[in-house]
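Case study 2.
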Amino acid sequence: MLESKRGRVMPEYWPKRRFTRYPIVLPLLHRGKGPALASAGAGWTCDLSGGGARVRLAERLRPQDSLHLRFQTDVGSIEGDAQVVWIGAPDPQGGGVQHGVAFTNLPPDQLLPLRGVLTSQKPWWQPRNRLPVDVLVTCQFQRRPGPAFQGRTVNISRGGLMLVLPQVLSQGTALDVTLQTPAGPLTAAGTIVWADPRGRQTSEKLIRHGLSFTAATWSTSLALARFLANRR
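Prediction:
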């Protein structure tokens, strides 16, 4: 084994990178392959390529561990097998441990959606990190009294979400938002970063807003990844 300057443990045989990486952050589920690797968990990609991914997981795996991965994209899930090729140090700020994984077996029907996600990336486009999700959300003001009110999500990413609300909120409004998921309520703090009161109202006269998460813990981020990656 070799250890890089960044503290990554890498097999000596691992070749130099041959694929372009794209900064695509997607939720994922993973489970070990083999009797010694029965554990399963959730995480997020940091970037993605045609040959593998850099992922952030809750636990530290071992070099050459074999995994089955399921990524959730904006056009559906991508599943296949991979092998751990390097391991980074724990992230004291973002949480989790970074790993490099190389794809070892992607079925033919999974290659096409992966290629579509990667080839859609252009320097002038936003990465495809947002997943279309329609769930009920309950909002509560953080800094002023008032009753809770409800809306619905339009899309969700690790960094925030788009939601539709029955009232216009000003930029900078701080909210606690609770998503109603099959596993139970999932709450995160966020700030309104934009509102579109005139341009994109829905048929129910709800108004679109963009909310950026401001204090999502690693455990909340993992719960969000698990919720998103399990959606069909």
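Helices lie at 108-119, 218-229.
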